[in-house]
Specification:
Layout lengths: L2 H10 L5 H30 L14 E9 L4 E10 L2 E13 L4 E7 L5 H4 L9 H11 L10 E6 L2 E4 L9 E9 L5 E10 L6 E7 L5 E6 L1 E3 L38 E4 L13 E4 L30 E5 L19 E2 L14 H20 L29 E5 L8 E4 L8 E4 L1 E2 L2 E5 L6 E4 L1 E2 L1 E3 L18 E7 L25 E5 L5 H10 L4 E5 L9 E3 L7 E4 L1 H12 L5 E6 L2 E2 L4 H16 L16 H11 L59 H23 L11 H15 L6 H16 L4 H10 L37 H6 L2 E4 L6 E19 L4 E16 L6 E8 L4 E8 L1
Parallel strand pairs: 12-15, 14-16, 16-18, 23-27, 24-25, 25-26, 26-28
Antiparallel strand pairs: 1-2, 2-3, 3-4, 5-6, 6-7, 7-8, 8-9, 9-10, 11-17, 12-13, 17-18, 19-30, 20-21, 20-29, 22-28, 24-29, 31-32, 32-33, 32-34, 34-35
Helix pairs in contact: 5-8, 8-9, 9-10, 10-11, 10-13, 11-12, 12-13
Length: about 900
């Protein structure tokens, strides 16, 4: 287009409307900028092929899918989709950042496929898109599709088909190329199917020639913290009509917001275990939510008096009816959500108004807080109406969070499903089992954490539950010791068939080991006991499983510490009366878990751009880690220190606030308490060999938490989470900007480098030394490698800093060499013992030994100095990892036992 000629033509039109002329000028300017921008991108890619390991042909075809302008860094983040003959390559995305002031590229990360043309298997599909739908329905056992009808043709090889009896929404089908692990790139049909039962929202790639499913991923992220297997999420076909007929409020004057009241666990309170509720008035942020939390039209005055508004619609879903809207509390015309709460033995149904209100509050503050740091309309946040529009044909709006309280589709869970911009995400908060041992008499009076038995009819983890669930079978009785006729009477392993005196009507405490849990409980039941407590013979609580259909009394396990205390009291002739019971705990009262779930939406919308929510499906993806960080960041208190122990989900586990919660280690900078390092990624396997996304994520969150405290050490702590200037606020900025820079499909290295790049954009790199030291301390040093993007078994851990030529202005430091100077381990290989020579005293250090499967086989904590001898005679021959940790040191070495 000849821009000068167009402008001259416009100027000749004497009658042109001034406003119209101004609009046209803006339009022309936009075209000019777009052309210049594309030219800048093309020039940068073509002159940096070697740097990014690409061929010229690999950058011949691409399209811009999203543009996100960051008000914080004054940079436009542009997301490019790689194409071949007009067909997208799945997740082949480049993030390119252009500084607005001079239209200059200042950052690029790429997931483009190298030598793409040589890897393509076909350019013409043999399989019809309708057939692909049938293939997917069969493979995923969705039932037989019926009435498959083409609803819309969006372009070449891009269609929308009817729901066809297998999906809650119409089924989009698009031709894409799917890169595979073997290096090939196969022509595929991409289908999006939202399962009828609401459990999965599938993205499936089907070989366009053979009909075989090549890959699939789920837009739902399941945080079933108790059993880390499978993906379990619900996303509803969001309807804009409600069967509840919420009240419409007459528009009020500018004093409208003064009446809003919400009685909630106000931040930074994490849960009922961490503090009480507060009555807040008009707590919305005027920048992020200028018309309050109940607006949906951008005009002063609320549209809803229930827990519904522009950012979130919070409702009850105890019947798991995702297709229709459930109950929401009504605050009346004054928006007064001040409801009474009694948690003392009460059913969650009795305080549902409090639960839903708290869920509404936390979703809104998550929206408002992270808006300040760059998760705004342009970045793809969650709003029914976007008050700020973007030049790019996006964002779309109409995507407020649908948040379900007390969801009836499961227990001990929470999840968040994130579709692309313009579709509603859904958060599901569940009830959690809360089995407990309450001691009513004696020196141990109090309430203790227990694990309830998980017996099933076939003995499998997912089989039909058997036994006597505590919720339906509470019992109060005196505790007595098992005393059978076996070699170890307390273990309850006798098979003599002789009666055991003294168990009738009692809760029996039994030691672990010697025989199965089922046989122990069965023996107690056969002798008329009314309940069983199994004492672990190792650290922590154990989970009891087994096959039975005959057990009719409740049974739990306790830690060795608690069990030994009870046994000692009984041997001292104390009478201990106790109650075994279970009352559900409501996850919607745990602000940390709500924030964690919302965090999944943030990371999914920011990595790869708001229209691509598929970037975190590889084995080293860090979604759970970012989400843990989000929950920790908004619940920090001024009195916290870097060594304060922070668990995740301690409320739902009935643990004290100093507990570990639902992670292997609590979060703290003290490496004797949380010894995680980059190497530990390789140990995050579930029993079936699949990766534990929570385990991998917890390692990343540990590093982010260290960074948070290192930044606080430099800049102080600021309790203002919205506009504060403390180190915690600066870390929040780094995380959000870093997510926008993180490459699609990357792991630790890509995320680390994105944080460093974010500091360059936001702070001119003044924190690079801090950032490198934090990551290097946990083994994510300059020379580290993530290996293959889709593997959690090939990481290379190093503790080194970048060379001085790349990192000017930092004190010389190589953490690995400094640590190696402190320790010498000999002999290695060893047989019956090893010696650890320690040149410098290590205060409060922990020596641990792990087997090749990541199980801890030795641990001792003390001040370390001189030479420490460890007896290894009981260890089987094999390879082990020796670790030595304290608050500052993280040392690890391979140990061979002959």
């Amino acid at each position: 287009m000849n821009i000068k000629l167009l402008l001259k033509s416009l100027l000749r039109l004497k009658t042109i409307n001034k406003n119209l002329f101004f609009v046209l000028i803006l339009l022309v300017s936009g075209i000019t900028f777009g052309q210049n921008q594309n030219d800048v991108i093309k020039n940068y890619l073509s002159t940096n092929l070697e740097k990014y390991d690409l061929l010229k042909a690999d950058i011949d075809e691409w399209k811009i899918t999203s543009e996100v302008y960051s008000k914080q860094s004054k940079v436009t983040h542009i997301y490019l989709q790689q194409l071949y003959k007009g067909i997208p390559v799945f997740n082949a995305v480049s993030n390119i950042s252009i500084r607005k002031s001079d239209n200059k590229v200042i950052f690029l990360s790429t997931s483009f496929v190298k030598n793409l043309a040589a890897k393509i298997n076909s350019v013409t599909p043999a399989l019809k898109p309708k057939t692909a739908i049938i293939q997917v329905a069969s493979a995923l056992q969705l039932g037989s599709p019926n009435g498959i009808e083409l609803m819309k043709e969006k372009g070449a090889n891009n269609y929308v088909f009817s729901k066809s009896g297998i999906s809650q929404q119409n089924i989009p089908v698009e031709l894409v190329y799917q890169p595979l692990k073997d290096g090939s790139v196969k022509l595929s049909w991409l289908l999006n199917v939202y399962q009828l039962d609401g459990i999965h929202w599938w993205n499936v790639r089907v070989d366009a020639n053979t009909g075989i499913i090549l890959q699939k991923n789920d837009w739902g992220v399941n945080c079933d913290f108790d059993v880390e297997t499978g993906i379990h999420s619900h996303v509803s076909d969001i309807q804009k009509e409600s069967n509840q007929s919420p009240l419409i409020i007459i528009k009020k004057n500018e004093d409208f917001f003064e009446a809003d009241q919400y009685n909630v666990f106000a931040l930074p309170v994490e849960s009922p275990n961490h503090g009480g509720r507060s009555l807040l008035s008009a707590p919305h942020n005027l920048i992020a939510s200028p018309f309050g939390w109940h607006d949906t039209d951008g005009v002063l005055g609320a549209e809803y008096t229930i827990t519904r508004g522009n950012n979130v619609y919070a409702q009850l879903d105890d019947d798991n009816d995702n297709g229709t809207f459930g109950y929401s509390p009504d605050g009346g015309s004054d928006l007064n959500f001040n409801f009474t709460l009694d948690l003392d033995g009460k059913s969650p149904d009795s305080y549902k108004d409090v639960s839903i209100t708290n869920l509404f509050y936390v979703n809104n503050v998550m929206h408002d807080i992270w808006y300040q740091y760059g998760f705004d309309e342009g970045a793809g946040n969650f709003q029914a109406k976007n008050y700020v529009e973007n030049d790019f044909p996006f964002p779309l709006g109409e995507d407020e969070v649908i948040a379900d309280a007390q969801d009836g589709s499961g227990k001990n869970n929470a999840n968040f499903s994130t579709p692309p911009e313009g579709l509603n995400p859904r958060m599901q908060m569940y009830l959690w089992d809360n089995p407990s041992l309450k001691i009513n008499t004696g020196s141990l009076i109090g309430k203790y954490v227990v694990n309830e038995a998980r017996f099933t009819a076939d003995g499998t983890a997912n089989g039909i539950k058997s036994g006597a669930p505590l919720k339906d079978n509470p019992v109060t009785a005196d505790i007595v010791l098992m005393n059978d006729t076996g070699a170890t009477p307390i273990n309850g392993c006798s098979d003599s068939g002789l009666p055991i005196a003294g168990l009738d009507g009692k809760i029996v405490i039994i030691g672990a080991g010697g025989c199965t849990f089922v046989s122990k409980v069965q023996l107690a039941q056969d002798n008329n006991a009314v309940g069983v407590i199994i004492v672990n013979n190792g650290g922590g609580n154990l989970t009891m499983g087994g096959q039975t259909t005959t057990i009719r009394i409740p049974s739990v396990s306790v830690s060795k510490e608690i069990g030994d205390a009870i046994i000692t009291a009984l041997l001292n002739f104390e009478t201990i009366n106790a109650t075994l019971s279970a009352i559900d705990i409501d996850g919607s009262l745990d602000n940390g878990i709500i924030a964690h779930e919302y965090g999944h939406g943030i990371s999914n919308r920011l990595i790869g751009g708001p229209l691509n929510v598929n970037c975190m499906q590889n084995q080293e993806q860090l979604g759970e880690g970012w989400s843990d960080y989000f929950g920790l960041a908004i619940t920090m208190k001024p009195a916290d220190t870097k060594t304060t122990v922070r668990g995740i989900g301690t409320f739902t586990r009935s643990e004290p606030i100093t507990g570990t919660g639902i992670r292997r280690y609590p979060y703290t900078t003290d490496m004797s308490v949380n010894p995680f390092s980059f190497r530990d990624v390789q140990n995050q396997a579930l029993s079936d060999g699949a990766v534990s996304v929570h385990g991998v994520g917890s390692i990343w969150a540990t590093m982010l938490w260290d960074l948070n405290w290192k930044m606080i050490g430099a800049y102080g702590f600021d309790s203002d989470m919205y506009t504060g200037t403390g180190g915690n606020n600066k870390t929040m900025s780094l995380v959000i900007e870093g997510l926008k820079l993180t490459p699609c499909g990357s792991g630790f290295i890509g995320a680390r480098d994105a944080i460093l790049a974010a500091d360059e954009l936001l702070n001119a790199g003044v924190n690079k030394c801090i950032i490198w030291e934090v990551f290097a301390r946990r083994g994510l040093g300059f020379s580290s490698s993530s290996g293959e993007a889709d593997s959690f078994k090939d990481q290379i851990e190093t503790f080194d800093m970048p060379p001085a030529s790349l990192l000017t202005g930092c004190a010389s430091l190589n953490l690995n060499k400094e640590v190696l100077k402190v320790f010498r381990v000999y002999p290695n290989p060893a047989s019956t013992s090893i010696n650890i020579s320690i040149t410098t005293e290590v205060k409060n250090g922990t020596i641990s030994i792990y087997d090749i499967n990541g199980r801890q086989v030795y641990s001792k904590k003390s001040d370390l100095k001189g030479t420490v001898n460890i007896n290894t005679a009981t260890l089987s021959a094999g390879i082990y990892i020796l670790k030595i940790n304290n608050e500052e040191i993280n040392y690890s070495q391979k140990l061979i036992i002959n």
